[in-house]
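A reminder from the course coordinator: this example appears on the midterm review sheet, so study it carefully.

Given structure:
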């Protein structure tokens, strides 16, 4: 019997790579998807047998082509982890239309287009999971997060629509509100005075997402926030 397939959009040194490790350890065949083919090759050295599909989450045609190749190689997707994200960090008076556009295309439109690629196969099976990496910015806009917060709020609304539409069809959609700073070499360098307890561990986030994707239908989680125990909120 073939292994279930997990596709992860947005592979980086933090949550993306941790998700790939966790789902592979859990018995899934993993498809790693990101804009940079070079970075995918680098990260793939840490994940045995992962298949690589370079694509741009903000470009519907790029996503469509990547998923077409993925389905040909691996079959239909059982779990989609949408970890792509991004946005500018500027005040409302400095935020450009272009910055707003790319933030929405990556976070909100990208999620919708990626979901549309996996929904038919999930409906045919009567099961599946779409796991979405969100952010606290989706709940409140900061003075320097105009484009990012607006796009993440839109992503949250898309996730709600997906969940309400797909839940009765057996497809679990869940949004994870990440409240804190991921523990990475670059974030440690940016915040050298912060203690270990300040940072969120990517492997711990991935473990929570993995278990949520496998929840029984009688008690599905739609929205779950994660933060270090010392985080003020």
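Designed residues:
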């Amino acid at each position: 019997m073939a292994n279930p397939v997990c596709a992860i959009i947005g592979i980086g040194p933090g949550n993306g790579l941790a998700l790939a490790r966790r789902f592979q350890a859990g018995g899934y065949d993993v498809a790693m998807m990101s804009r940079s083919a070079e970075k995918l090759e680098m990260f793939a050295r840490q994940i045995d047998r992962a298949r690589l599909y370079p694509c741009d989450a903000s470009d519907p045609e790029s996503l469509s082509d990547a998923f077409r190749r993925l389905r040909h190689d691996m079959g239909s997707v059982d779990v989609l982890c949408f970890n792509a994200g991004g946005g500018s960090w500027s005040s409302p008076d400095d935020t450009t239309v272009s910055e707003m556009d790319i933030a929405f295309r990556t976070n909100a439109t990208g999620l919708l287009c990626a979901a549309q690629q996996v929904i038919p196969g999930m409906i045919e099976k009567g099961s599946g999971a779409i796991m979405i990496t969100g952010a606290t910015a989706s709940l409140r806009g900061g003075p320097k997060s105009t484009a990012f917060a607006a796009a993440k709020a839109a992503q949250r609304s898309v996730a709600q629509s997906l969940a309400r539409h797909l839940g009765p069809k057996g497809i679990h959609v869940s949004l994870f509100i990440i409240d804190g700073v991921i523990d990475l070499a670059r974030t440690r360098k940016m915040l050298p005075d912060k203690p270990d307890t300040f940072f969120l561990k990517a492997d711990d986030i991935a473990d929570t997402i993995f278990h949520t994707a496998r929840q029984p239908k009688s008690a599905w989680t739609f929205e779950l926030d994660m933060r270090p125990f010392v985080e003020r909120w």
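The chain has one domain: 5-226. Helices lie at 15-25, 37-44, 60-74, 97-125, 146-166, 185-190, 202-213.
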